[in-house]
Amino acid sequence: MRDADAPFVRVTTGTDQAALRRAHLGLVLRSLRDEGGRSRAQLAADLGLTRAVASGLVGELEARGLVCPGARQRGAVGRPGTTVELDAGLVCGLGAEVNVDHVSALAVDLGGDVVAERRVGLATRRLTPDEVLDELAAILRDTLAELTVGQGRHVAGVTVGVAGLVDAAHEVVTLAPNLGWRDLPVAQGLRDRLTSAPAPLSVDNEANLAASAEIDPADPDRSDMLVVFGEVGVGGGVVADGRLRRGRHGFAGEFGHMIVDPQGRPCACGRVGCWETVVGLRALLEAATDPDDPVRDPALTLEDRLAGLAERARRGDTRTLAALHEIGSWLGTGAAVLVNALDPGVVVLGGYFAALGQWLRPAVEEQLAAGVLASRLGETAVVVSTLGPTAAVRGAALASLEHVFLDPTAVPRRAETLNGAAR
Amino acid sequence: MRDADAPFVRVTTGTDQAALRRAHLGLVLRSLRDEGGRSRAQLAADLGLTRAVASGLVGELEARGLVCPGARQRGAVGRPGTTVELDAGLVCGLGAEVNVDHVSALAVDLGGDVVAERRVGLATRRLTPDEVLDELAAILRDTLAELTVGQGRHVAGVTVGVAGLVDAAHEVVTLAPNLGWRDLPVAQGLRDRLTSAPAPLSVDNEANLAASAEIDPADPDRSDMLVVFGEVGVGGGVVADGRLRRGRHGFAGEFGHMIVDPQGRPCACGRVGCWETVVGLRALLEAATDPDDPVRDPALTLEDRLAGLAERARRGDTRTLAALHEIGSWLGTGAAVLVNALDPGVVVLGGYFAALGQWLRPAVEEQLAAGVLASRLGETAVVVSTLGPTAAVRGAALASLEHVFLDPTAVPRRAETLNGAAR
Predict the structure, then answer these.
(1) Domain around B181
(2) What pLDDT is recorded for position A2?
(3) Do B318 and B364 sit in the same domain of this protein?
(4) Strand, helix or coil at A126?
(5) What is the complex's ipTM, to 2 decimals?
(6) DSSP designation for A147
């Protein structure tokens, strides 16, 4: 979740000095993450701050364990230790995911490296919401203990990704057709179960989180990007000018319920011909397999099913290849609609679309070439996500870290921590 | 074109002092426009600047004729003349439009009021591009003379709206199916014809300009907005987080070429079933009238045709009402696709959709209620544009003014102007 709008300091009516200082602290931290360690003088020049202000900010970040003296600058002849760099180790962000066949947790440190990962297979649809939240709380409790007691880290926040509509306050899953959930207060349910919830805890749409994990400020083609994420349901995210755009009520990216085939199949949402009905996992399984096909065995994980289909495609199995071409064509038909509207630099295929991307992509490209008005003028590349099945939970962990970049003072000064520990 | 991202001062690597000062000058100017006149001290506090810096900025804007001493603050007992306010009168932005049946020009002053307007009916499709540019140059020449010689104003820029794809450099119309233009260097063509082009001159997509004219920073529902603009062609704009989003290559908003009816009619673009084929003006005329209907008379202006149809609808003419319901349903079907993807607070119906909006809107609302997954959770309102047929050219004029808000030093100091005049 590297957010292109974040390095802006908004000068607004009534901005108070403390808010401005928090924004500046976040700006320094983000700059050290995105552009690497350097001297205080260089940092000040890069950010348009005076050297005294920059030094003060660096000092405060150091007291909170977020930056540290850097390695001696290569080739520099000055004093050692004049550079500063991100101290990635102390703080981490925790992500979690509730999916149709598993719950999982994953933590990343301030530099984005994975420092903890857990996953439990679970037929979530057959359990009550309370049972699912019990399982999720258990996995989060274990991971939190590992991170804090085991690794001595500070957890900046917990973000839970769910395949469904989440309210704007990031508290309640209002509708998750594929989990059978409606108006479920997930955030409060987890707070009740985690007696010492140490950090901000929020809920977010899984596909939006997976989309945010694809943002790369170093790649201009990804500043405007469409991420299409396929599982049983289909969703994704719209990135415009470097930032995930959530819409007025937070429901942007519900691509799965665009109607593309009005004379087609009924959808789990109650409508007919949603994109999900022609490109979701069920459509693939129906096109590629018979009902008694071993790939449909509900005991198999999603990864195993997809590996089975990929193996058949690799062997050149005619039915499998025809099914992938059909799904790819529908994927391209819907993507073309969105590309006409949004003109992204890339369309990223995520989730199961990525696992089978090499067979889906040619048909998607064909449909984009045919269906996009400006296709010969500004090329939109079709890219297969490399984040694998952990894209959403990784996006959730990165989202949790944003709390630190927005307000580094949320991390206690180390003296405060020591005092706390001594009590 | 009140641009929500504009009041941000980006602190970037290598920002130089002059660029920062230009950004601060623009910030002060924008704040005075959007939030009204006030004292230098209040302005400084509102913008988080020191009073000395704010006074310096105000002084420079005053020297350039952009701000002036304000009316004495109501109820204040201090010295008179301590407030400053926007001096809207000196500077104006000029917009122009090339449409299938006319070319036009319109200028607005710094406060957004219209100060000049011209329009010439022209069957642009039957003329060569050179002939159209000749007509456009003539109307621009007259309007420029009126603004500068007649009214003594400074023209900040000229923006020409064209119903077609425009390259990212805002110079060339690469494809305009309804004008029959391809790769036409419109900006250079006009510069060649206007011997003393006094200002930045650029070309932009007409529907994008119309969309930007709908942005209203005071209305949070318009921070995420979909503007759908109907004429012979159909286009529009995507506003996310307060700003028109243009996509990677500048082609966002080409809604007209979303395929919504794959078994339907051929489109001018060469594809089948584009949204334009079912909601464009031709579809309406075909559904509502016979070929020999007087409303189809090519000698009529678009406004006259629409007035004729509105009159029939008002009288309760069955065929007209059925046609409007059919077009409204298709309009809603396409809008629902976009609302699922973008979750706007409002969908604005512009262009001919606005002229007949009262009859189209109910069917659009029905389709949104039926086709949007989150429709019962976060309501997207359907709103009829009140900007009338000048939305695009007005958006063009506002776009021209942006040059001043981005860099007020583009307006010469008044002393410089006087020296220039004395030479």
Answers:
(1) 91-210+391-422
(2) 34
(3) yes
(4) helix
(5) 0.78
(6) I
